[in-house]
Amino acid sequence: MTSTSAGGFAPAEPGVMIEPGYVIKPGYDDRLVNEDLAPLRDQHWSAYNIFAFWMSDVHSVGGYITAGSLFSLGLVSWQVLVSLLVGIVIVQLFCNLVAKPSQATGTPYPVICRSVFGVKGANIPAIIRGLIAVAWYGIQTYLASVAFLVLTLKFAPALAPYADVAQYGFAGLSTLGWGCFMVLWVVQALVFWRGMEAIRRFIDWAGPAVYVVMISLAIYLVAKAGIGNIGLTLSAVKYKGWDALPVMINAIALVVSYFSGPMLNFGDFSRYGKSFAAVKQGNFWGLPINFLGFSILTVVTTSATLPVYGRMITDPVETVAQIDSVFAVALGAMTFMIATIGINIVANFISPAFDFSNVAPKRISWRMGGMIAAIGSIFITPWNLYNNPEIIHYTLDILGSFIGPLFGILIADYYVVKRQNVVVDDLYTMREDGRYWYRNGFNPAAVMAIIPAAIIPVACVLVPALHVAANFTWFIGMGLGFSIHLVLARRQAA
Q: Across residues 36-45, what is the average pLDDT?
């Protein structure tokens, strides 16, 4: 392992669990460190824990709909599977790249960004990623609350009037919807508040639980529909020959874009890995293998809804709600609700927790950072965002246009500029002789690279003439961020 620390951090004694398992040295500046941002010395997550992380990230209502959408693009099944595998392998390779610096140093995403952007400049990528997570956190909480609403009405149909926003509603959401949303909001906060180990235990079983329900649901629907009525393509349109290539490329881009958020801050989780080899192994089983299996289950289930219910249903919660058995509906809705909580915590709670804590470590703890995101998710009224696709499309696509540049700059700096050498102790100092002080705490090369690397992807979203490239904003931003940072960093060093 070439990534090193001056003075390093002492390994744990064999067989001893260190709680909380972090290292804060006397020389660390308290404006840059707290017990959550400090480097870990107790890195014990196995390959299974990383595998379970990806299961929680994939196995959700959003993951179900995304996987199904790949099979409805007009491609035949083998074309979809090729596109899916290419896209998810790209995600796997990039996750391995972004995982290494955090696993090697034991630091979360915003802290490793200090080596790139400067000890103060790291707040720029941290805040951008945190804001994106707040929006998605609210949306995923709302989606989970819809499953809870379905479950509630199944057992208490007399509450149906309170689910009507026209009769009983506030700020665009029904009274019962508010109740379900806030219950899920509190449940997620309680899981998060118990700490990262509680989250690890939660995702260790949440992802596999969805597989059990998905397999059971698929068997039930296939038995009712008949095996001959199940297909692996959900679209009536079929692209043939070279006509399919642009659609396949779009499918690949869709897969990468879907995972671009958790891919950027994957270091928040890889820092807990007991070795880089364990992280890579977990990524292999959790991404190409897991996503392929989940996608096939999704399309089998979705395809079976047409002959069984007379229409194609792409929402798994709605599919479960059609089942006659109250027990089956309760089990299915609860499982998808738990699965969505899982992805929300790992993808949209952990990130802002570290990101916002990084802004003011003395005042904002990891827990407080997460709660800032949770409270912010209420005030954005995510159901209104979700019900207005145009607003959410532009808002999140513009914010997402910054993810690619941030990823490219981080990878370029760590692997090319610094050649995988990071001095951990200097990540926590504001001394002018510190390696990551740069100019007043900001690295001009990295900060300036963000501007042109983000403007072009944003233009692809906003300018109608460029909208054909909107699905590729992550790749455009990543490539520009990577190359522009290298040019500026070399000029800066000259």
A: 90
